[in-house]
Design brief:
two-stranded parallel sheet, 25 helices, binds zinc ion
């Protein structure tokens, strides 16, 4: 089967280069796309089954099989991308054929050039970068400490000397050795992008947003400027609290914040130090969801059923029986699994699953609502052709789950019988709740923006290898207002100490998802006629919200994303003002707290 379809594809490509009539070429493009969708669908079903078995039963054998299927998937995507690029100048293609060819061309994050040996070299370098990161260790008290442990320790340790040691050792040991490999990776992948008709890899990535690549970069800046005042107030407040706690010698009351003091290796989310900055009396949230779940005898299954209940309350269908039979809800006692929560759609129709080692606590309660958002999105677009089985753009998928998770408000907990109506926290507790949220969601914004700003500059050649480190430190200062705890030499490579750089995972999507989830949430609040403070709204049980949400989700990636956004929110523009509206009470409070302080850096 496989070899026959491969042959058919080669014949099509061969004829294409022959330069036939335009109409003929259009028909060939259409046939090429149809064949590609067939092959991809067949590969995807097998590969996802293989991957599922691997992630839920890790052995030497399933690792090897998953790697083999991964490699076959890459080969297939490369072949299809190159095939698609041959139709670049074919006139009179239909909207769908053109769109699908573009999707095929952009399916590979790091395209290899055609010259012999290049794909192999790129693959060796990419794998080496990933494993350098995976095996990377820092030190704590002079002893080696692994990646996941050091991440946790950065959230818990409060001794500034130890934080500095962990930060420096991680960036030195993990980032610095990657410098030359990364330089080479950029050069090869850019060659590959040129083969596909893009000036560089960054442009290829930015062209995935239904607008000219430069316009997209400006769009990111526009969204950032909308939310920047909120970040500046949060930065100002947290800096003052850290300075009070650690003393001015460790953290000055003015200027940038020391990056290792924020409870996270990359200073990207600050929730871990919430207790350090929470104001007295305002800091507690008024109820303890983990305790409520225990008191009501929730188990993992009941947690998932409750999450499903949110979606069915909106009028969306129940999850299929196979979801309950095939998902992994708890950590098996007798085998290794990947516990990191994920949502799956194996057959691109109804074989939906989640994989998660659920603990009965508040965090996992929210994560379940998030993961099921992916499943409901996948199911809503399952009538679309293969190349449209995706979010409207790559920020949408994460935003759906997060937006539903935002709605797990105290009122919602009352409606599902977890919280007694008399125990709904009074408005004076809102500041604590909002500050806790902002420490993660608002603090993330400048980091979410700058990772790809750095990478776009590196990929376009605007930043030369000699300036890789400096440009990273500059952007961190400019956007986040943070500085390294120690002077960084020009030979360092701090960006490599963040997984998504060696892993070559584009990052703009995470920034967009943060913005979009609040925009979705505000739209849902308006549709449900909510009149109170935005952050208190739960649209649980609102069928109109469900109907409009489903309309957006069912489009998959078949239309430019503004069409999808409009179907749900009525707006064709991404908009950071919803996030500002959500955090308005906190903004007012922060401005009061910051009176007399010199904000900014
Ligand atoms: Zn997710």
């Amino acid at each position: 089967m496989k070899s026959r379809s491969l042959l058919a594809l080669m014949v099509i490509q061969f004829i294409c280069t022959g330069g036939a009539l335009a109409q003929n070429d259009a028909a060939k493009a259409e046939a090429f796309v149809a064949q590609a969708e067939k092959e991809l669908a067949a590969h995807s079903l097998l590969a996802s089954r293989m991957e599922w078995v691997n992630r839920t039963y890790i052995t030497e054998d399933t690792d090897a099989l998953a790697a083999e299927f991964g490699a076959r998937g890459t080969q297939l995507s490369v072949r299809l991308a190159k095939g698609a690029a041959k139709f670049d100048n074919t006139p009179s293609l239909s909207f769908d054929v053109r769109r699908k060819l573009d999707f095929l061309k952009r399916a590979i994050v790091l395209p290899a050039p055609e010259r012999p040996g290049a794909a192999e070299e790129l693959n060796v370098i990419a794998t080496r970068l990933e494993s350098t990161y995976g095996k990377g260790k820092g030190t704590l008290d002079g002893k080696p400490i692994s990646g996941s442990d050091i991440e946790e320790a950065m959230g818990q340790v409060r001794d500034p000397e130890k934080l500095k040691e962990m930060w420096k050792s991680w960036h030195d040991n993990v980032g610095s050795p990657m410098r030359d490999d990364y330089t080479r990776l950029v050069a090869i992948a850019n060659e590959g992008a040129k083969d596909l008709g893009f000036p560089d890899v960054g442009t290829l990535w930015r062209s995935a947003y239904d607008m000219p690549p430069d316009d997209f970069a400006r769009e990111m800046d526009r969204l950032w400027l909308q939310v920047k005042p909120l970040y500046e107030q949060l930065h100002c407040y947290v800096r003052a609290k850290l300075s009070e706690h650690y003393g001015a010698k460790v953290q000055s009351a003015t200027g940038p914040i020391r990056a290792d003091l924020l409870g996270n290796m990359w200073a990207q989310e600050w929730g871990n130090i919430y207790q350090l900055v929470a104001p007295q009396g305002v800091g507690d949230l008024g109820y303890d969801l983990t305790a409520l779940l225990a008191a009501k005898n929730y188990d993992p299954l009941k947690m998932v059923k409750t999450g499903e209940g949110f979606y069915t309350s909106l009028g969306l269908p129940s999850l299929p029986p196979t979801f309950w039979e095939r998902s992994l809800f708890t950590k098996p006692r007798d085998r290794e699994v990947v516990c990191h929560a994920s949502a799956w759609d194996l057959d691109n129709k109804d074989d939906l699953r989640i994989k998660m080692c659920i603990k009965v606590n508040a965090e996992d309660f929210v994560v379940i609502h998030h993961e099921l958002g992916h499943n409901y999105y996948q199911r809503a677009y399952n009538q679309q052709p293969f190349l449209y089985l995706n979010g409207a753009h790559d920020g949408f998928h994460e935003a759906i789950g997060d937006f539903i998770a935002l709605s797990t408000t105290p009122d919602y907990l009352v409606q599902i019988g977890l919280l007694d109506a008399s125990k709904v926290p009074s408005a004076d507790k809102d500041i604590g709740l909002l500050l806790r949220q902002a420490m993660d969601k608002v603090a993330f914004l400048p980091f979410g923006l700058l990772v790809d700003k750095w990478r776009w500059d590196v990929l376009s050649g605007a930043t030369k290898p000699a300036d890789y480190q400096k440009h990273w430190t500059d952007l961190r200062l400019r956007y986040q207002g943070v500085i390294p705890p120690v002077e960084r030499p020009a030979t360092a490579f701090d960006p490599g100490a963040k997984y998504h750089i060696p892993g070559s995972v584009p990052y703009a999507r995470y920034f967009l998802a943060r913005i979009l989830q609040f925009q979705f949430y505000k739209a849902a609040a308006e549709q449900s006629g909510w009149k109170g403070p935005l952050h208190r709204c739960s649209f649980y049980g609102n069928k109109e919200v469900g109907e409009r949400l489903n309309k957006m989700m069912a489009m998959g990636s078949s239309k430019p994303w503004p069409d999808a956004l409009e179907a749900f929110t009525g707006s064709r523009k991404m908009d950071g003002s919803a996030m500002i509206a959500y955090f308005q009470p906190l903004m007012t409070w922060l401005e009061q707290q910051n009176k007399g302080r010199q904000c900014g850096w």
